From TrEMBL:
Lineage: Bacteria, Pseudomonadati, Pseudomonadota, Alphaproteobacteria, Rhodobacterales
Organism listed in the record: Rhodobacter capsulatus (strain ATCC BAA-309 / NBRC 16581 / SB1003)
AAA+ ATPase domain location: 145-275
PANTHER family documented for this protein: CHROMOSOMAL REPLICATION INITIATOR PROTEIN DNAA
Residues binding ATP, per UniProt: 156, 158-160
Single GO MF annotation: lipid binding
InterPro entries reported for this sequence: AAA+_ATPase (IPR003593), Chromosome_initiator_DnaA (IPR001957), Chromosome_initiator_DnaA-like (IPR020591), Chromosome_initiator_DnaA_CS (IPR018312), DnaA_C (IPR013159), DnaA_dom (IPR013317), DnaA_N_dom (IPR024633), DnaA_N_sf (IPR038454)
Encoding gene (name): dnaA
Region Domain IV, binds dsDNA: start-end pairs: 334-453
Family, per entry: Belongs to the DnaA family.
Presence of the UniProt keyword Nucleotide-binding in the record: yes
Main location: cytoplasm
Chromosomal replication initiator DnaA C-terminal domain span: 361-430
Domain notes: Domain I is involved in oligomerization and binding regulators, domain II is flexibile and of varying length in different bacteria, domain III forms the AAA+ region, while domain IV binds dsDNA.
The protein's name: Chromosomal replication initiator protein DnaA
Localization annotation: Cytoplasm
Length: 453
């Protein structure tokens, strides 16, 4: 019966969420109308109760069971398992030693993998669920369904983490596959080295012999002509052989300047997914997961309630900064031997908190938008009505509304003393256009990211 309920749940909450949160649950018992589950960690227990308690209850009832309540707990009497030991046993993360073999035994010139970057340690939320699902699909190692997988997003949103996770997973599940992960910079370095040592044939042969090629931060090869050329040929050769390619970049293929058009269009051929900036829920999830990992190794650690919520609320830049804050907090707390309270956090993270408080200004928005559309900054506030100038101006108005806390009259003042109704009209116009004009929507996405990072 639970199997049937699971099928329904997969449909209602989505496969990704299901796999991440519900599949690891153990059904323990049904008594007195209470269905009990065990979750592998305290965090999962809280998260699932909070976010999936309702749907689970609903589906159980739909299946005809008389259920009052769903109870989720961590296994009794067992010390909290380290998060590495968390989900499904067949998916144990690859030990670092094994990952390193990718590049050593098989003579692949890849970059070492970070043993911490696994699917198990990747927290899934709305902003990254598509990217995560796509990465999971590639990691299954089955027939290639989209090629390449192109992941893009701002700094510190988990692109490298996901790529390493794919490599780890393939190594544990499909040891026979030759997986090569490296950054675009390393690709260039290898290429130049091969040219210098007159070993370009070896280089080509090597890169054409892999089953899965992953190139991180591909924007790096923009403007590097011969590297681009070689990359293009490698790419085509692998695609022709039906080999999987995974690429990451800090922006969408079409937005990478100084990248040959034929490469851009090749990169767009497969599945292009972006990692959106984190939202509060995801940040809190990440903080809780990391705290659990840390607490499992440092039993004395006590974090007062509200501290993680405070951080998730205040540090909105990127996950790396969030992690950095947490690491410092742990180090500080262990030094002074104190519980981590809100006061301690505020004191010890003052600089990070101040930096992430920095709000985007309207002037900055105008400058970036003018730069992006190649118009004069003075035209942003000037009177010209030409479409090629008026449209960027409206984009700047739109972003001012969305990225600052200024009121419409205040925005109007900064746009050369325009009336608030003009501003409102501009914002509405952009809202309306974005539903049909993909290029515009992408421009705005890019500009937002540029200004939020
Ligand atoms: P990018 O390559 O996109 O710049 P990284 O993959 O290097 O970002 O991520 C930066 C840091 O944030 C890493 O330590 C990574 O583990 C962590 N991180 C990012 N997203 C997540 C997530 N969803 N869950 C857990 N950790 C994350
Ligand atoms: Mg990266």
């Amino acid at each position: 019966l639970w199997g049937q309920v699971c099928n329904e749940l997969q449909r209602t909450v989505g496969r990704t969420n299901f796999n991440t949160w519900i599949a690891p649950l153990q059904l323990i018992e049904l008594s007195d109308g209470i269905v009990s589950f065990e979750a592998p960690t305290k965090f999962m227990c809280d998260w699932v109760s909070r976010n999936y308690g309702e749907p689970i209850l609903r589906e159980l009832r739909n299946s005809g069971m008389a259920v009052e309540r769903v109870a989720i707990r961590v296994p009794e009497g067992r010390p909290m398992p380290a998060p590495e030991a968390r989900p499904m046993p067949e998916k144990a993360p690859a030990p670092a030693r094994k990952a390193a073999r990718v590049s050593e035994d098989q003579d692949l010139p890849g970059a070492p993998l970070d043993a911490r970057f696994t699917f198990d340690s990747f927290v899934v939320g709305k902003p990254n669920e598509l990217a995560h699902a796509a990465a999971r699909r590639v990691a299954e190692g089955g027939p290639v369904t989209f090629n390449p997988l192109f992941l893009y997003g701002g700094v510190g949103l988990g692109k490298t983490h996901l790529m390493h996770a794919i490599a780890h997973e393939l190594q544990t599940q499909h040891g026979e596959l030759r997986v090569l992960y490296l950054s675009a910079e390393q690709f260039m370095y290898r290429f130049v080295q091969a040219l210098r040592d007159r070993q370009i044939m070896d280089f080509k042969e090597l890169f054409r012999s892999v089953d899965v090629l992953m190139v991180d931060d591909v924007q790096f090869i923009a403007g590097k002509d011969s590297t681009q050329e070689e990359f293009f040929h490698t790419f085509n050769a692998l695609v022709d052989q039906g080999k999987q390619i995974v690429i990451s970049a800090d922006r969408a293929p079409g937005e990478i300047k100084d990248l040959e058009d034929r490469i851009k269009s090749r990169l767009q051929c497969g599945l292009v997914v972006d990692l959106h900036p984190t939202d509060y829920e995801l940040r809190l999830g990440i903080l809780q997961t990391k705290t659990e990992i840390h607490a499992a190794r440092n039993p004395g650690l006590v974090v007062a309630s509200g501290v993680l919520e405070f951080l998730a609320h205040r540090i909105t830049t990127n996950v790396r900064v969030l992690e950095g804050a947490l690491t410092r907090l742990f180090a500080f707390a262990s030094l002074v031997g104190r519980e981590i309270t809100l006061d301690l956090a505020q004191e010890c993270l003052a600089d990070i908190l101040r930096a992430s408080d920095r709000r985007v200004t309207i002037e900055e928005i105008q400058r970036k938008v003018a730069e992006h559309y190649n118009v004069r900054l003075s035209d942003m506030i000037g009177p010209k009505r030409l479409r090629t100038i008026a449209r960027p101006r409206q984009v700047a108005m739109y972003l001012s509304k969305h990225l600052t806390t200024r009121s419409l009259p205040e925005i109007g003042r900064r746009f050369g003393g325009r009336d608030h109704t003009t501003i409102m009209h501009g914002i509405r116009k952009i809202d309306e256009l974005m539903t049909t004009d993909r290029q515009l929507a992408e421009d705005i996405g890019l500009l937002k990211r540029l200004m939020e990072s």
